[in-house]
Amino acid sequence: MTIEPPRPAFLTALDTAQSSYATRNPSSAKAYERATDHLPGGGTRSSIFIHPFPLFIEKGEGCELTDLDGHVYKDFVSDFTSGIYGKSNPLIREAIVTALDNGLQLGAHSTSEAHLASLLCARFPSLDLVRFANSGTEANILAITTSLRYTKRKNVVVFEDGYHGSVLSHFELGGANDGGEHDMKVPFDYLVCPYNNILETERLIKQHAAEIGAILVEPMLGAGGCIPGDVDFLRYLRRIATEIDAVLIFDEVQTARLSTGGRQKLLDIIPDMTTLGKFFGGGFAFGAFGGKGDIMQMFDARSPHAVSHGGTFNNSPLTMAAGAVAAEKILTEEALAELNALGDWLRDSVNEAFNSKSLPFKMTGLGSLNQIHCTLPSKLASAGLTLLFYKLLEKGYWIAQRGLISLSFAISREDVEGFVEAVIASAQEVAKL
């Protein structure tokens, strides 16, 4: 007879938390059951699934979400960084209404796309010229293909635990989003290097230097855990890209919010190309890729050798109008500095409590982008973090199940102070198990 080893107490507690969650949310359970009739797994976005079923949100206002069962949550994930404006910014709403009055879809050039392009080029040091797309994923695919066409090479350097969109992720097994073997990838010829490791990255790059056309890197790993790129590491990538005549691409889809010109402006490291997405569409689907003029001139339609780049919604009037007002009037230097300072205070406060109370968690990140990690052994860490997630839900706080925290302009200092108290209390509850 085989005797099963006893389960760690917090695994039993996790079962209890999930059962309690299911009991509290019968309307979401019913909505999910109906959704599974026509959506595989009941949804169309893997990152927001929750076991045993996801919450269904009825409405959002300010920094709050209300689910189908009437529970209200303070939103501390902000739609995975894209919802930086909160749920109901009046300036964006006004821009959208005005754009609607002028026509939902025009199918032609408008002055708003040139205006948004000028605002982005003025913000980011690397952007001489820019083109629009419909997501950060699309922007990164286009930046890679542009770089390979420009260099006439085939290899792309990427980094472990890097995420550049739904078909451009490089997680190791057991990492963010449950491991690399479950991810889909566009079949570029990748050279996967270790993040923040200059010696090993240099060894690998030197072996393939003649074939490398692009080096794609996040200045801070986003979905990979909010791990900041070391300044020396990022400067090394700038040097080696120049040395081997490869195109250095900064994926600033998330880190663009760290200043008016992203992390490249803060560090004075100028890539050859930059990709953007998420919040620069003012709440609509958006992506952008751009860089040096001699690279981007390949798309100049006036040339008989121009590279074609279509996209019905690349210059959608609503996106262009919302993005322009956001870049011009909301994403100001002062507003971003205040938001990022608040995020730094949050991270420092939580980490101080984790350390002083010897709690099995830590928080990493930069500015208003942060992530909680469970420091228990690997087999228990995922369960520990998930249990923390459920405990925060019970207290009325919404974060990503993987631990991501992203602040919005709608969140107040008082909201953050309450959240810090809830995180510490929840971590203490987990640690007692």
TrEMBL record:
Query: Is Transmembrane one of the keywords UniProt gives this record?
Result: no
* Pfam families in UniProt: Aminotran_3
UniProt keywords, alphabetically: Pyridoxal phosphate
- A GO MF label: pyridoxal phosphate binding
Q: SUPFAM superfamilies annotated for this entry?
A: PLP-dependent transferases
Q: Does the keyword S-adenosyl-L-methionine apply?
A: no
Its required cofactor(s), as named, are: pyridoxal 5'-phosphate
* Family of this protein: Belongs to the class-III pyridoxal-phosphate-dependent aminotransferase family.
Could you identify this protein by its name?
Uncharacterized protein
Could you read off the lineage of the organism from its UniProt record? Eukaryota, Fungi, Dikarya, Basidiomycota, Agaricomycotina
